[in-house]
Amino acid sequence: MDRMLNKVLRVGQLYDFYNALLTDKQRECLNMHYLQDLSLAEIADEFGVSRQAVHDILRRAERTLEEYEKKLGLAARYSEERRLIAAVVSSLGQLPPTIRNLPELSQALRQLHSLLEDTREV
């Protein structure tokens, strides 16, 4: 169960970064299967192809997404940047209130929090 959930999350994350680089059919199949939760049979009916054809399209698209990530590393870089920003926010949050509440630092903390919130969906 965890393995399947991890796969869905991984494909979703890679899809967010690289979907524009896929073919229309790959993008549609991934969207229908992972985002709309349609079965292979439902997708096959929609396209007028076999379940095996849909399975092949999905596997090829997943492989393509992983290849893009291996070459470009955008998802890994994004995750690392979020981790670093969260660590900075945590460290700054542990400063004494007299320092933490300085206007410039307080504004920087708000901006960092906002950045973390704005990027949560990606």
TrEMBL record:
<protein>
    <recommendedName>
        <fullName>UPF0122 protein SPTER_17580</fullName>
    </recommendedName>
</protein>
<dbReference type="InterPro" id="IPR007394">
    <property type="entry name" value="UPF0122"/>
</dbReference>
<feature type="coiled-coil region">
    <location>
        <begin position="51"/>
        <end position="78"/>
    </location>
</feature>
<dbReference type="InterPro" id="IPR036388">
    <property type="entry name" value="WH-like_DNA-bd_sf"/>
</dbReference>
<dbReference type="Pfam" id="PF04297">
    <property type="entry name" value="UPF0122"/>
</dbReference>
<comment type="similarity">
    <text>Belongs to the UPF0122 family.</text>
</comment>
<dbReference type="InterPro" id="IPR013324">
    <property type="entry name" value="RNA_pol_sigma_r3/r4-like"/>
</dbReference>
<keyword id="KW-0175">Coiled coil</keyword>
<comment type="function">
    <text>Might take part in the signal recognition particle (SRP) pathway. This is inferred from the conservation of its genetic proximity to ftsY/ffh. May be a regulatory protein.</text>
</comment>
<dbReference type="InterPro" id="IPR054831">
    <property type="entry name" value="UPF0122_fam_protein"/>
</dbReference>
